[in-house]
Fold this sequence. Notes:
The complex is a heterodimer.
Chain A: E1 3-6, E2 11-14, E3 19-21, E4 23-26, E5 32-38, E6 44-50, E7 56-59, E8 62-65, E9 75-77, E10 86-93, E11 102-104, E12 108-113
Parallel strand pairs in A: 2-12
Antiparallel strand pairs in A: 1-4, 3-9, 5-6, 5-10, 7-8, 8-9, 10-11, 10-12
Chain B: E1 4-6, E2 10-13, E3 19-25, E4 31-38, E5 42-49, E6 56-57, E7 64-70, E8 73-78, E9 87-94, E10 100-101, E11 105-109
Amino acid sequence: GDSVTQMEGPVTLSEEAFLTINCTYTATGYPSLFWYVQYPGEGLQLLLKATKADDKGSNKGFEATYRKETTSFHLEKGSVQVSDSAVYFCALSGPSGGYQKVTFGIGTKLQVIP
Amino acid sequence: DVKVTQSSRYLVKRTGEKVFLECVQDMDHENMFWYRQDPGLGLRLIYFSYDVKMKEKGDIPEGYSVSREKKERFSLILESASTNQTSMYLCASSLASPLHFGNGTRLTVT
């Protein structure tokens, strides 16, 4: 079945450091790929998405590129802020499981210190 | 903005009790989902529904059931709560993509 692999962390960075959170996936066909973010005490919210190979999703300074050849969707940000401290989930949907069903990675906790 | 509301933020129940977790969405979404979130395991899909009175098993349906009598409401039922069901439960809804989540219910079974 479909699966998503990411490190659990925590990842601890100083403010203004460069962030990379790796995500690789296993799926048949061409899934849609997502990054969701969960701030403390809240549910998940969509951060960015990409629906086909070589697409780049971006939002709030975060970026991720859909790499079909390496089955990856790594999340990057050039300069993190304390307010970026959260748990980040890589996810995919479809086609084998249907586009309604979303499969999540285990989540990577990011801590940004001033 | 889509609003997904889970009725309880924290819940403490005893082993063997029947537990109802309620979720309501206000955007006329077709699809609704229940996930549980555990450290080191991420989010795992329990059940989902793509229409009123329709339900599909997710990856970990054992020990749970669901009810969707109205489009906006999706209930998760623990028929006989057990300690291994202590977890954070997240409800979500969608039309197509993306998922919109509630803030979660932290359930403790003692």
